[in-house]
Amino acid sequence: MIVLGLESSCDESAAAILRRRSDGSIEVLADLVLGQIDAHAPYGGVVPEIAARAHAEAMDGLAAAALKEAGLALDEIDAVAATSGPGLIGGVMAALMTAKGLALGSGKPLIAVNHLEGHALSPRLSETLDFPYLLLLVSGGHTQLLVAEAAGRYRRLGSTLDDAAGEAFDKTAKVLGLGFPGGPALERCAQNGDAARFDLPTPLKGKPGCDFSFAGLKTAARQIWEGLDQPGEQDRADLAAAVQAAIAASLAARTRRAMDLFAADYPDCATPRPLVVAGGVAANTAVRTALEAAAAKAGFRLIAPPMKWCTDNAAMIALAGLEKLARGETDALDAPARARWPLDAASAKLDPAIGSGRKGPKA
């Protein structure tokens, strides 16, 4: 099976083509990503209207370029997959409407993909990974712990109560004047810092469960920075290092709770049990190091996709589309674009994890 995947949920326009061989292995035939850093840098963050326009201008050309790179004509693929949510609604519409046009024009099936499932499956782009596995999905807008029971079936163990880890990275970077994108900039700055210099709160310390919270940490970092008298480069580096260390420690501690639950619920799972970390924050070295240590202590093995597939990309969307196509699941041309789309709809409905901020339910 061959699937063309399109992605435009935030600030990367992407197209990819994947082939699933008869033995189940995956071959990436084309993988293109067009970023928008220069367009958003003057504003210190992603501007939804600018992102949506850039996606709309780029998507058809990217799809054509992916087909050319793969050496295929449109009638040689088996389906067109696209992110249908969650994400910035104007951006989501760009890839989804392009996919609908291609599917309608070619008579090929449309597959509407949950962007989060793309991240959840992304390690399977580069290695064989059996179900079930524990998943830490950590990105700019999402921080969740789930059990991936099978492709298309996920059970949520915990979610963010307010800000996601990626938001804490990005917004702290903005406060420190580190530029855009904030997460990578803060990581670079932290390399020369003393993480022990500033005393930051430990989010949800001692609280039961597997939920996360990063709003208080972000606020504390801002207050420390604003309270410094003429802060210099070393102050900036030390605070960046302290914030990064606090986020990594919180992710590791809450994930350790989830590892205990997973081990109890799936005693027959082969050891070392799999802990998958996916999403943009999975590219952070300090986060990976903290998770590796926690995983090793609990008898788990940390699995992460290659760096190029941690951030948003279309290869993971095509892979999720292949999984749905293999199950015989396709979508009608009226498939909606969704700003929110939880992986585990049942858990999200019963426990929406409503935060106190203006963004409302994070699930």
Could you explain how this protein is built, in words?
The protein is of the alpha/beta class and 363 residues long. The chain contains eleven helices and ten strands. It has helices spanning 37-40, 48-70, 89-106, 115-121, 165-175, 182-190, 215-227, 233-265, 285-298, 315-326, 345-350, and strands at residues 2-7, 12-20, 26-35, 79-85, 110-114, 133-138, 143-150, 153-159, 273-278, 300-303. The strands form two sheets. A five-stranded mixed sheet has the order 3-2-1-4-5, sandwiched between helices. A five-stranded mixed sheet has the order 8-7-6-9-10. Residues 353-363 have low confidence and may be disordered.
List keywords for this structure.
five-stranded mixed β-sheet, 363 residues, alpha/beta, 11 helices, globular, 10 strands, 19% strand
